[in-house]
């Protein structure tokens, strides 16, 4: 069984909303899945996705292959996660002044 990490379309007409799921690569786009590991809202302007990076790492270590779009979402989320602790450390120092 080949497993992929991909987007599952939700929402309504002209208002898409996606769930990031782990699914058998043979199942249809909106068909059965193994686990929901995040969401993606393309209509929002700023940080528009939430991903469980620990679960993504788990599934990739098991051999799951992310789609191109999900791969770019993972990359963006890792950059945001790396920037947030740095901002949190800098904020208290700036507030004390």
Automatic annotation (TrEMBL):
- Which GO biological-process labels does this protein carry? translation
What are the GO cellular component annotations? cytoplasm; small ribosomal subunit
Quick check: keyword Ribosomal protein in the entry?
yes
Key words of the record: Ribonucleoprotein, Ribosomal protein
Q: What is this protein called?
A: Small ribosomal subunit protein bS16
Q: Which PANTHER family match?
A: 30S RIBOSOMAL PROTEIN S16 (PTHR12919), SMALL RIBOSOMAL SUBUNIT PROTEIN BS16M (PTHR12919:SF20)
Q: Which NCBIfam families match?
A: S16 (TIGR00002)
In its UniProt record, a GO molecular function of this protein is: structural constituent of ribosome
- Tell me which InterPro entries the record gives: Ribosomal_bS16, Ribosomal_bS16_dom_sf
UniProt lists the family membership as follows: Belongs to the bacterial ribosomal protein bS16 family.
């Amino acid at each position: 069984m080949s497993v992929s990490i991909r987007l599952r379309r939700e929402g309504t007409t002209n208002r898409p909303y996606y769930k990031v799921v782990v699914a058998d690569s043979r199942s249809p786009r909106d068909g059965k899945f193994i686990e929901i590991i995040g969401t993606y809202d393309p209509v929002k302007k700023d940080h528009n996705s939430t991903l469980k990076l620990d679960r993504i790492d788990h599934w990739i270590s098991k051999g799951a292959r992310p789609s191109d779009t999900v791969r770019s979402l993972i990359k963006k989320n890792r950059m945001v996660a790396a920037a947030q602790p740095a901002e949190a450390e800098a904020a208290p120092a700036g507030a004390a002044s």
